[in-house]
Design brief:
This protein has 10 helices and 5 strands, in the order βββαββααααααααα. By secondary structure, the protein is of the alpha+beta class. It folds into 3 domains: about 60 residues, Nucleic acid-binding proteins (OB fold (Dihydrolipoamide Acetyltransferase, E2P)); about 60 residues, DNA polymerase, domain 1; about 55 residues, Helicase, Ruva Protein, domain 3, CATH 1.10.8. Strand 1 and strand 2 form a beta hairpin. The longest helix has 16 residues. The chain is globular and about 55 Å long. InterPro entries: DNA_helicase_Holl-junc_RuvA_I, Hlx-hairpin-Hlx_DNA-bd_motif, NA-bd_OB-fold, RuvA, RuvA_2-like, RuvA_C, RuvA_C_sf.
Length: about 200
């Protein structure tokens, strides 16, 4: 299974690129948002998902783990295939997805090519899963604070555990921490006790 590809773009099409990796050209299906950023000859790094069928093996590429997570979840929804899932990802970013689902608004989905009113309503209903929205928020939050910094990551994990012990729901905790982290200009001075206090203040308001 191919998890990541690093190489040079040697061809670009409307729905895929060909990445030269040590002399081997891999066809990687990407969203229009990704394709529009690059030119032939550019170096690229992609997180990948391989879809295996009886007569075909396709590789889909993503620039971050949020898009890949969303892609795989979309594939579990009736009426959504890999190509349509990629189109949806290229049309909406994670903030738009979360907001639309939380307010039960399917209008953004109906504007996507290949998504009719019935499928748009189904997408919102399926994506309403609190576990999935929470997972999206969690991944987004970790990326925003640079997950490679183990100290910051541990602080967030400890704060999440402490708030959970106080009786707050996982979705509430993730939303509060995400909001506080997004508002902070200096994450290097992130403190556990202050983060917990700020979260409690926000959750109690």
């Amino acid at each position: 299974m191919i998890g990541k590809l690093f190489g040079e773009i040697c061809d670009i099409s409307s729905d895929h690129i060909i990445v030269n990796v040590n002399g081997v050209g891999y066809i990687v299906f990407c969203s229009g948002r990704i394709i529009s950023r690059y030119n032939i000859g550019d170096r690229i790094e992609l997180i990948t998902q391989t879809i295996v069928k009886e007569t075909d093996i396709s590789i889909f590429g993503f620039v971050n783990s949020i898009d890949k997570e969303f892609f795989n979840h979309l594939l579990t929804i009736q009426g959504v295939g890999a190509k349509l899932a990629q189109t949806i990802i290229g049309s909406l970013d994670v903030n738009e997805i979360i907001q639309s689902v939380q307010i039960n608004d399917d209008t953004k989905f109906t504007k996507i090519s290949g998504v009719g009113p019935k499928l748009a309503a189904r997408l919102v209903n399926e994506l309403k899963s609190k576990r999935f929205i929470s997972k999206l928020q969690n991944i987004k939050m970790k990326q925003e604070i640079n997950i490679s910094d183990n100290n910051q990551s541990q602080i967030i994990l400890d704060a999440t555990s402490a708030l959970s012990n106080l009786g707050y729901a996982e979705t509430q905790i993730n939303s509060a921490i995400n909001q506080i982290i997004s508002d902070k200009a200096d994450l290097d001075n992130l403190k556990l006790d202050i983060l917990i206090k700020d979260c409690i203040k926000l959750l109690s308001s």
